[in-house]
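Researcher: Next sequence.
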Amino acid sequence: MDKIDAKILNILQKDCTVPVKEVAQLVGLSYTPTYERIKYLEETGVIKKRTVILDPKKVGIKLFAYCNIILKEQSKEKLEKFEQDAVKIPEIQEIISLSGVYDYVLKVATTDIEAYNDFVVNKLSNIPNIGQYHSNIVMNIIKDETSYHLSED
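Model: Next structure:
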C-alpha cells in the first residue's frame, strides 16, 4: 500500500459513495488506475465492505450498553460455542475477545432500558456457559468514529 492508496482509502472512509472519477481527481490519477486500485483494495480485503452509517436516534436506538462477560469454562470448544451463539443475536453489534478479568465485551444497541432488560433476560441469559455479566450503560457518546487515520506522507 502506498501514499495514493492511503489517500483513496481516506476519501472512501469519509464517503464510500464518492464516484471513482472524483476520487481520481482528488488523488491526481486518471479514472482507470484509480478504479483498478480500488478494485485491488477490495479483492485483497483491505476494503472489507462499503456501508451506510445510520443516526441511531433517528431509527429508534436510544440505548447502548457494554456488557462484560466472564465464562464458566474457557476451553476452545466453550469459547467457540459462546461466539457462535452470540453472533446470532441482532442487538449485539460487536463481540470482542479480551485478555484480563473478562473473557468478552459485547456492544449492545437497543431502543430503551426495557428492551435491554428483555435482551438480558430472554437472549443473553440463554447462552450456555456464561458465569457472570456486568453491564455498563452508555450515558453519552463523545466520539464515534468508524474510520482509521492513514498517513498520506
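Model: The first helix runs from residue 3 to 14. The chain has two domains: 3-43, 56-137.
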